[in-house]
Amino acid sequence: MAAKSQPNVPRTKSPDGVAKDGAAPHGQWGRAWEVDWFSLASILFLLLFAPFIVYYFIMACDQYSCSLTAPVVDIATGRARVSDIWAKTPSVTKKAARLYTLWVTFQVLLYMVLPDFCHKFLPGYVGGVQEGAVTPAGVVNKYQVNGLQAWVITHLLWFANSHLFFWFSPTIIFDNWIPLLWCANILGYAVSTFAMVKGYFFPTNAEDCKFTGNFFYNYMMGIEFNPRIGKWFDFKLFFNGRPGIVAWTLINLSFAAKQQELYGHVTNSMVLVNVLQAIYVLDFFWNETWYLKTIDICHDHFGWYLGWGDCVWLPYLYTLQGLYLVYHPVQLSTPHAMGVLLLGLLGYYVFRMANHQKDLFRRTGGRCRIWGRKPEAIECSYTSADGQKHRSKLLVSGFWGLARHFNYTGDLMGSLAYCLACGGGHLLPYFYIVYMTILLTHRCLRDEHRCALKYGRDWERYTTAVPYRLLPGIF
């Protein structure tokens, strides 16, 4: 559910041979028109158990010192009942409700009211008003790209409070972690339900809606492609990037502050988690315009999967490493710490450079150099919904000659580094690498199914030239 995507934009070709954004084959955007039994079973499983999974992990840390097996053992042996565990769980409080309302309101204001100015003085940064990819209905939406600015302002205020104003304790997020969980769930379900009602009764663009006839599938995967309020408030861009990802680094900082409060120092493992995850978050906002051309924006409809996922799943499960280190401070040996740092930086380098190579190839129409050579590509064609034929190219040079989704490989290396920073005492911090492996493998299969339908035999030629998805020689 996080924004870890690869650019996947429908392309056409102009008379000068340079790839342009264009229409894609009918049915290749977003989700299914009809629901099979397996998809429905998967949807029901996620709707029923995903909220429970989040609660279980957070409860395990709060009541069982991050042990994933102890609650099950206690219940199985009769030492505890589910009602006992629930009774010990903090409920929502007025303080948490005010804090969460203020947080979301502040992020909405930064998104809507303050136009981006970072692009005016930061070389290489692309912000301000930008166009997204063409939608199935042929609409090209405009976006106010100002996530980097929102992140900077938010964190400047956080550090100003910590060192100058002292309006609140830096541990405020950790201290209200479970009450804030209920607030995040309320928002997640509210926005998902509103998006579904909006899709039925007052969609932004009726031609960009999909209805399967199955309530649960429509609710989870969404009806509207780009639900909006007014001209600028875009549900997908806001909830994918704000408030969850802006909060990610603040949550980690609050965990570090709590570690300092409890033990008198911040461990090198906590520093590593904060630094490595902050690099990823900053990369996301620096490349927010690029993000407009990714799977999340170009193919997914907005439903519970994105609405609840970005409000609850992302901020609560992507930060498990920092939470774990509050309960189990780990001071890594120098070789271990350096190994984790190098793995994390190498993973980020692969992730960023792989995406850069594909973006460079697309922007220049192949008139560039990758790893010092003219790039090689598979010429392919496809037919769009209007019956017209288009030509495109699939890159087989650089990282894209090693595997078809090598940017995901870099992503997984970084994810593993976050987990290894926590040592080997518990399973809980390793949930992230397991989840990311499942998520990105699923994205690979999903993307390749779409490409196989789009390109046909040309896709078979491409998979022959680049036979591996993620790991050369293995998978």
Automatic annotation (TrEMBL):
Parts of the chain that traverse the membrane: 37-58, 97-114, 148-168, 180-201, 237-255, 262-282, 332-351, 415-440
Reaction catalysed by this enzyme: 5,6alpha-epoxy-5alpha-cholestan-3beta-ol + H2O = 5alpha-cholestane-3beta,5,6beta-triol; 5,6beta-epoxy-5beta-cholestan-3beta-ol + H2O = 5alpha-cholestane-3beta,5,6beta-triol; cholesterol + NADP(+) = 7-dehydrocholesterol + NADPH + H(+); 7-dehydrodesmosterol + NADPH + H(+) = desmosterol + NADP(+)
Enzyme class name: oxidoreductase
Keywords of the record: Cholesterol biosynthesis, Cholesterol metabolism, Endoplasmic reticulum, Lipid biosynthesis, Lipid metabolism, Membrane, NADP, Oxidoreductase, Steroid biosynthesis, Steroid metabolism, Sterol biosynthesis, Sterol metabolism, Transmembrane, Transmembrane helix
GO MF entries: 7-dehydrocholesterol reductase activity; cholesterol-5,6-oxide hydrolase activity
Main location: endoplasmic reticulum
UniProt-listed InterPro entries: ERG24_DHCR-like (IPR001171), Sterol_reductase_CS (IPR018083)
Its EC number(s): 1.3.1.21
Subcellular location: Endoplasmic reticulum membrane
Domain of life according to the entry: Eukaryota
An example Gene Ontology biological process: cholesterol biosynthetic process via lathosterol
Ranges of biased composition (kind: Polar residues): 1-11
Pathway participation: Steroid biosynthesis; cholesterol biosynthesis
Chain residue ranges for the region called Disordered: 1-23
Membrane topology note: Multi-pass membrane protein
One Gene Ontology CC term in the entry: endoplasmic reticulum membrane
Family: Belongs to the ERG4/ERG24 family.
Record text on subunit structure and interactions: Interacts with DHCR24; this interaction regulates DHCR7 activity. Interacts with TMEM147.
Function according to Swiss-Prot or TrEMBL: Component of the microsomal antiestrogen binding site (AEBS), a multiproteic complex at the ER membrane that consists of an association between cholestenol Delta-isomerase/EBP and DHCR7. This complex is responsible for cholesterol-5,6-epoxide hydrolase (ChEH) activity, which consists in the hydration of cholesterol-5,6-epoxides (5,6-EC) into cholestane-3beta,5alpha,6beta-triol (CT). The precise role of each component of this complex has not been described yet. Catalyzes the last step of the cholesterol synthesis pathway, which transforms cholesta-5,7-dien-3beta-ol (7-dehydrocholesterol,7-DHC) into cholesterol by reducing the C7-C8 double bond of its sterol core. Can also metabolize cholesta-5,7,24-trien-3beta-ol (7-dehydrodemosterol, 7-DHD) to desmosterol, which is then metabolized by the Delta(24)-sterol reductase (DHCR24) to cholesterol.
Name listed for the protein in its UniProt record: 7-dehydrocholesterol reductase
